[in-house]
């Protein structure tokens, strides 16, 4: 691990600004700074390092999306916020797998976190899961065309060249065919 | 009447909408969302939405779907970034340093409970005999109870030796004309065994023999010739499973100079050897292997290579032992990769690797005692 990164805990505003500016360094500093704290929480409360990775990344994504959406207010220390979110996510997971013994060993102070926040996140996760399996079922070349067009924002011209379509109209027809199939696969899963 | 004419225009537009192919419709909706329509076209489009609820629903659905696709792609990208960062953290070492350390009393008990128990029983026995000799036991029933206990112990002892004899007599396998041997070590308590691929490559049948001399039939479950790794599975009916695996397979690389040891069966003899990691690459800079300062003899192939904390860091291999004085081991990372690559349909249950080493802090003798139970001589028949 990079020594410099390891030693420097970023300031809270550095992290927030970094996320807003898509800074890779800030994200890395944030991730490296607080992972040990969460690993400690999870492995001392009947989890392992893989659980810690899952829970921690989920919390980082919650924070990231909140900051990006502009509705993140720093009312406590960022460290406390992340710890609190992970703590609640982990309690929920323990309850789901019936491993929760009714008490959790804490290593930090924490705040109560509103429930609806994580509910919304869970809803979105379900939609993403569906999208993932719909794309999986779609098969090639449709999957790549969809990803190129809607995810990587490639132009029709580029897509034409990549797939060897003779003209843009053919590519367009193919694209809409694929889109319709993807939609069908997605909505069938409801 | 102007209102009337407008209605006619709407319905004509709606009809047009139905005549449009699904593709053209989608194209229109996208152009609308991307703001690529002319003012007139836009007006017509909005009028169509108002006039036809079904059309409006289609537009909304598309908007939702395209938005979701975009968000989904952003999430995937973020997850990839986070995973890349995560890869750089040495989780294993971090975990070691974060485990809640129990108080010294608990640690003392954990490390020395057998000795403490023996000491305690000796003390109690001494006290009892002194009391007995001193005639303090006027209560006959106590002595009676003790006598019964001793008799029971005698009986169970006799039973035990009988069953040991039975086991020994059963243990005569179609031996012992096997053509070559190697070493293997347990990955799970259910009897998955790792060894070198070159050990079992040409085998007709494979048996693994534990430290007590008992043999079990095994089959080749999976192999990766490019890493020289093979995974065997014990299929013998008499196999009753092993206890908890005392070592953890390490993913990260081990440092130069790290103290290491192996346990295996070169020359068909249980052998312990100790030394250091001398290079992080093998012969001619081959990054698949470590070079180790531990003598590896034929028959040692497939021996577990462990560090002092009980992490499994490699699989010793004697294949390249012909290079004077240099000895090699395959890095444990490749073993982990091979385990992950085992096709799920060839397994009856998910592989649960040990996540905790129970060997940290033990001396060499105790370590060998532990590893011995999980290391096997791999016997090859019919090459």
Please characterize this protein's 3D structure.
- The complex is a heterodimer of chains A (190) and B (383).
- Chain A has helices at residues 3-7, 12-20, 24-43, 49-69, 78-96, 115-138, 142-151, 156-163, 168-188.
- By secondary structure, chain A is mainly alpha-helical.
- The model of chain A is unreliable at 1-6 (pLDDT under 50).
- Chain B is an alpha+beta fold and 383 residues long.
- Chain B has helices at 2-19, 22-33, 39-51, 53-87, 91-98, 104-133, 140-170, 197-200, 332-341, 364-372; strands spanning 180-186, 192-196, 205-209, 215-224, 229-234, 248-249, 259-264, 271-279, 289-292, 304-307, 311-317, 327-331, 375-381.
- In chain B, strand 4 and strand 5 form a beta hairpin.
- In chain B, helix 1 crosses helix 3 (39-51).
- The longest helix of chain B has 35 residues, at 53-87.
- The model of chain B is unreliable at 1-19 (pLDDT under 50).
- Chains A and B meet through helix 3, helix 4, helix 6, helix 7 and helix 9 of A and helix 2, helix 4 and helix 5 of B.
Rg estimate of chain B, integer Å = 35 Å
Mean pLDDT across all residues of chain B, rounded?
Answer: 81
User: Mind describing the biggest β-sheet of chain A?
Assistant: none
Number of helices of chain A: 9
Low-confidence stretches of chain B: 1-19
Strand fraction of chain A equals: under 5%
Helix content of chain A: over 70%
Quickly describe the structure:
Chain A is 72% helix and 0% strand. In chain B, the strands form 2 sheets. A 6-stranded antiparallel barrel of chain B has the order 1-2-5-4-3-13. Chain B has a 6-stranded antiparallel β-barrel with strand order 7-8-9-12-11-10.
